[in-house]
Hints:
Number of helices: 9
Number of domains: 2
Bound molecules: 6-O-phosphono-beta-D-fructofuranose
Helix content: 25-40%
Number of strands: 10
Radius of gyration: 22 Å
CATH topology of the largest domain: Rossmann fold
Largest sheet: 6 strands, mixed
Amino acid sequence: MKIGVLTSGGDAPGMNAAIRAVVRTAISYGMEAYGVFDGYKGLVENKIRKLERNDVGQIINRGGTILGSSRLKDFVKTEVMQVGIDNLRNLGIDALVTIGGDGTYRGAMDLTRLGMPCIALPGTIDNDIASTEYTIGFFTALDTAIDAIDKLRDTSFSHQRCTVVEVMGRNCGDLAIYSGIACGAEIVITKDTGYDRETVLKQVQQARKVGKRHLVIVVAENITDVTLLAKDIQENSEYEARASVLGYIQRGGTPSAFDRILASKMGSYAVELIRKGIGGQAVYAKSMDVGYIDIFSALGVDSKPSDLYNYLPRLN
Ligand code: F6P
């Protein structure tokens, strides 16, 4: 069997770990692995090359994607997608693993419909794929955002300011709400909370009344202009206010432990599915729910051996 792998859309830390797992798992089963470079654009332009074990060495810890990525608007036209499929077929490739966000998923659905079975892995810092609780890259981006907000908090405290921080997420508020909780932000504004200028100003004024020396407001992107919001707060409250847009820094950097492990499991799992002849699927991860158990039974629960042992490297 021959398997292709590509990354598409906004890059995310951990994509390399997923590529590595796909390639190495495929090779360990005697399959051939092919890298498609620069996402769906590269697929159409036939930028496809066979990958060996060593091609994916030294990348589990690297951010970005060694395969490159792109966004190709035309990858909704059947004739364009057909060129991509023909390129895969000419090399005898039977199935494709696509790693990316919602645009990548749409492409994978269409390719599957046109006869090229795809397995989609969620790779995006936005955490906006409905079928999975966590996407590859989300927690690393979250750590980056938290680190930045902690630093902003230091100077915000020193100067008794209101700091307004914009985080990424496209239309999803997860980076904002998770970083807001982790950093103890006073106000978080996302699509889900809604944005009402009057309410925010009231909350800011209230913060001063209860004696808050400074405050942090985390805003998801595409909600409102944070520079204008900071100006508004400065003009209508007792706080000086400053805005910071974290931007693309959230997409880069060394993947966290969680993202490396999630990506390794998902990449390997994708190959297992293809090996069983299963295509047209999206791999998901669940769950980090919190529950409770009678304390007198808590230590007596049978624990299963970790399934992580299945993901140790095979050298064949
Ligand atoms: O999907 C990841 C993401 O970084 C979003 O958070 C952001 O809205 C978008 O990509 C930016 O896209 P581009 O790289 O095309 O500017």
